[in-house]
Structure formats: C-alpha cells, structure tokens
Write a structure and sequence with these properties.
- With about 190 residues, the protein is mainly α.
- It has two domains: about 90 residues, Arc Repressor Mutant, subunit A, CATH 1.10.10; about 80 residues.
- The chain has seven helices and two strands.
- Strands 1-2 form a two-stranded antiparallel sheet.
- Helix 1 packs across helix 2, helix 3 packs across helix 4 and helix 5 runs antiparallel to helix 6.
- It is elongated, with a radius of gyration of 24 Å.
- The two termini are about 30 Å apart.
- About 15% of the residues are buried.
- The mean pLDDT is about 95.
Length: about 190
Amino acid sequence: MTQLEGLSEQQLQKLQQSRRRVIETIGKNMDLYGVTLSIGHLYGNMFFCHHPVTLDEMVETMGLSKTSISTGMRTLQELKMVNKVWSKGSRKDLYEVEMDWYQTFVDFFSIKWRKSVEMNVNALKKSLSEMEKLKQEYASDDHFVAILDTDMSKMRNALAYYRWLEKLIDSMESGEIYNWLPKEDP
C-alpha cells in the first residue's frame, strides 16, 4: 500500500494543493541561485517522496522527458542535494533527497562561493601585480600613481573580504558555524 492510498479525493486534492505550493516555491528559490526552475521542481517533488525514486517514477510524476529528469538528477547530485542509493533487488538507479537542509545549504554555497572566491582573488591579484608594475614605470607621474594607489587600496579591501569569506566557508564546512549559530530543533 502506498502512502496516499486510502485517502479520499478531497483529502488528496488538499494535500496536493499544499504540496504544489511548496514545490513551486522551492523551484522559484532554486532559480534565484542559478538552478533552473524545472530542476527546482524535481527537487521539490522528490522532497515529498517517502522512498527512493527512479528516473522513470519522476518522469511519470512530472511529465518531463527522461533526458530532462536525468540531467536534473545529475545537477542535484553535483550540488549534493540528492543522493544515489542502493536497494537490494533493484536494477535501476534510485535517488533520494538529502534531508539535512543545513548540510545542503553548506554544500551548495560552499561549492558556489569557493568558485567565486577563486575567480575574483585571481583577478584581483593579477591586477594588483600589473598596477604595482605601472607604479614603478610611472613613478614620476604623481596623479597617475595616486589613481593607482586608490584602486589598489580598493582591491586590497576586496581581498580582505575574500579572505573573510573563505573563513566563513571553512567554518560552514567544518561545522564550526553551528557553535555561533546553532541548528534549530524542528
């Protein structure tokens, strides 16, 4: 017996309405973070599953192509929001949502922020190095050197921010952040 069997049509409609609202909101929220709306909906639908699901089950649930569901599932796995699980006797891949939303948040933002930090730090360091050479080359031009100094000061401030952000990411990944901002009990 599935979990929804035995519900009246009215109960089922009201339950589905409540679930759709959450699924739609999850989709919109994930869209804000660069994950497509359909992948957000896939995650939202999986959130309400009470057992691991196959790609075929999600194709049936969502009415999307198997290719779309497979691509979405791969994206969710890369973001560590969905896990592939094993089940005795099953020949198909099974997937389930990572229910620890704290860990999902940490994984998602750590991945995104680390990429951003690396890219920005590299650009800032390269530009600082170039500007240092320009300062030496144009040392007698006080006006130009003053502009360079101002820009370099701004870039050093940006680097300080990125060092701080790296510490924040480290504290999230280590779990140390929960010493300052504890997880809430349900």
